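Need tokens for this chain, all 218 residues.
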Amino acid sequence: MAGAAVFVPSLPVSAAGSNCLNDYEYGCYARGTFDDTTAWGGGYVQVEVAGLSASGNAYLNEELWTTTNGGTSYWAEIGYSYNQPYCRGTGLRWFLYYENLSTFHGECFGSSPSTGTWHQLEIQEDASSKWYIYLDGNEEAIDSGTSGWNYYDYAGLEFHDAGYTSVSGNANFSYNEVRSTSCCSWYYWDQGGSDVDYPNTYNWIWTETNPWIHGYDS
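Here are the structure tokens for all 218 residues:
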């Protein structure tokens, strides 16, 4: 683990209205959001694996997103998914994705996560124009070729067809943090919002604020 956050006891394509209910190319979201207008060097969150299901081409992601170029055009994400397009038909799997100025990359990796277990998701810039992606303190990928700090972080649910996806119980996220641009001091989210496309389908609930460090998908 490159940062101290692991010892503490968290951009995606824009939502496209109702298209996410019938077009698998668009995502809808129920997630917590962070943007305090300050430049940061990484994001971190702890997540409890929830029971997910999906059928057909539908899929769900529970994850952390961190933007990587000072805006929202490029980002890195890591989490777990059910029926992820990078590993269709394999059920619940870890996955990551990043997009930068020159390329994009997505993959499923590792063993299947177990429902009810807690894990640490982290993305941080350890070198110039390189963002490192970690699961439980283990480096899983390096996003090279972008530049700038992150201003936006997100933690929560992305879904691609509400009629064929479900969450069994709540998906809990805790100890949301950002890293300073000068490695390696970590700070809890000092503000929070939410990005929810269809509250009657899935919702994001904050359970602790000031700082914004506990929430869940419902």
